[in-house]
Every structure is written in C-alpha cells, then in structure tokens.
Design goal:
Vanadium-containing Chloroperoxidase, domain 1; 7 helices
C-alpha cells in the first residue's frame, strides 16, 4: 500500500514537473537562470540587513549569528540528511526523462535532488526574518515568502528539481527557521534582559 502510494506520488510529481518545466521561452530562460544564482540577490540581502538593523539596532549581531547558524543547518541537512540518504536523481540525471527536460546554458546540477537546497535555504531565511518582523512589519512577509517561492520555482524551470524536491526543501527550511527563531528568543532573553537589568 505504502509502496503503491509512493509510486503514485512520484508519477504525479513527474507529470507536474514536465508541465511546469515545459513552459519556457528565451526571455524567461535568462531571468530564471540568473535568478537561481545566489550572488544575483546580494543587493536584496543588503536591503534585508539594512532593514533588520533599522528594526532591531543592537540585536542585529545576534540575528546575524542565528541566521548564519540557520543557513548552515539548512544547507548541510538538505544535503547530508536528505540528498545523500534518499539519492533521488534530478530530472536532468534521470535517463528516462533527460530527452524531455528543458535546461538552460547546459546547467544540470548535482546528481541528487531531494530535497532542494535552494528551497530550503531561501524558505529558512524568509520564514526566520518574517517571524522576527511579525510585530514590526507584516508587509515584509508578503515580500519574503513570494521571493522564496520564486527562487524555488526557478529550480523546476531550469529542470534540476521536481516539485516535491522544492516542497520538501521549503518544509525543511520553514521548520528550521521556527526552531532557530525559538533559539533566538531564548538568547535574546538571556543576553539582553541581563544587560537591561545591569543598566538599571
């Protein structure tokens, strides 16, 4: 029963991938290719840093440390706990699908694809910052979450991930973001409550 369910899910996943990956043109090829590159978003990351500093001032250092821990966990777990364990070939490395997969500039990615590290990392960052800003700027969540979804979608467009790879990565990133947010709250209370008490 479980094996049959998994096969059905894989079939649906593959069909959905072929539909989404099959919708392409030369203009979007360029947009999606460069949008999938981490360094293309450096100006956006700098904006987030500025916005965070403006919102939290002296707590920015702690937030940066927690962010570094979060992205490291997300990146490493998505590879060592998922890709290297499930060993699901990317569409670009699936010999049956290869002729049907649309790729851009010859980019095929690594061998395994479940889960998507791009999806995990972007959703981890987006969810963590959104949780931080929940009581300060709810509008930021309306920017960050669609941004994470867009970056994740580029991976399907480029042919290097199935939809379930992306969904799995997004769930992993969101879960880690919540855990690190709880860690941040603990450290915030531990560090800054003592500082405020000593200054009284």
């Amino acid at each position: 029963m479980i094996v049959k369910l998994i096969e059905v899910l894989k079939h649906i996943d593959t069909r959905l991938f072929l539909i989404l990956n099959g919708r392409h043109n030369a203009f979007w090829d360029e947009i999606m290719y460069w949008s999938s590159k981490e360094y293309a978003w450096i100006p956006f990351y700098l904006f987030l840093l500025y916005f965070t500093y403006r919102s939290f001032s002296k707590k920015t250092v702690l937030i940066l440390v927690c962010t570094a821990v979060l992205i490291t966990l997300s990146d490493q777990l998505s590879v060592h706990l998922f890709k290297n364990v499930f060993m699901r070939y990317r569409p670009t490395h699936n010999l049956v699908l290869q002729p049907l997969v649309h790729t851009v500039k010859g980019y095929t990615g690594g061998l395994y694809g479940f889960v998507s590290s791009h999806a995990s990392n972007t959703f981890a960052l987006a969810c963590f910052i959104s949780l931080l800003l929940l009581n300060k700027s709810k509008r930021m969540a309306w920017i960050l979450l669609p941004w994470a979804a867009f970056v994740s979608y580029t991976r399907i467009y480029l042919g290097v991930h199935y939809p379930l790879d992306v969904i799995g990565g997004a769930l992993l990133g969101a879960g880690l973001a919540f855990a690190v947010y709880k860690l941040y709250l603990y450290l915030d209370k531990l560090i800054y409550s003592k500082t405020e008490t000593s200054n009284e």
